[in-house]
Write the structure tokens for this entry.
Amino acid sequence: MMVRSPTLSALPGVRHGWFTREGGVSDGIYAGLNTGLGSNDDQGRVRENRARIAAAMEVSPDRLVTCYQVHSPDVVVAETPWAPADNPKADALVTRVPDLAIAVSSADCGPVLFADGEAGVVGAAHSGWKGAFTGVLEATVDAMERLGADRGRIHAVVGPMISGEAYEVGPEFVARFEAAGEDVGRWFRPTDKAGHARFDLPAYIVHRLARAGIARAENLGLCTYADEDRFFSYRRMTHRGEADYGRHLSAIALTPR
């Protein structure tokens, strides 16, 4: 039902998990643990799936909070729970409140979980290419420091997401990164199609995290596109011409001290 990182598991007072599609009540193209409030799945099933995630995180369903993701660098500080209908527009959450599980949604983009166990501050970021490119990762680290964390103690781990082997992009995409001074030879590998390339977004995310000066940045190395049994994938849905797709949640919480 969930994937955990040995790095984050070793930190005191931190609970976390990247939830797979296994263990839910949805069916059809959403089969399993679909948590997408914006999907066309039966909303009662989505709520039950999210309640199961809350239980796995050892919080009540009302203390599992998410955001309305817009591929931005914006970060919200979670201090009290809110209803899904009140989700703030942002792509990252940080908190220092125990038993408040913060979570981000994904289905190919990078779900990144952050923790400073000593300070008791955690974060969760939804990082697709646009979020990574415009600074959502660095903004999350900055927001954690404002809550008392120290970037020299922050550990960040990239969960299941689309791998470089499955992520083909066009020439305008590569040009955007080149114009910004990024090392395109490091992140893009040409394909047989003229001007196209495979983009290693997980490696780019880890690079941005390391450049932010945190203690440790790592990638679990799990591909949502390739592993259909465990993961939903927006790009796989697109290639198949399916009508919709399921979403995962990735969550982190602090235990009371």
Summary: The longest helix spans residues 43-56.
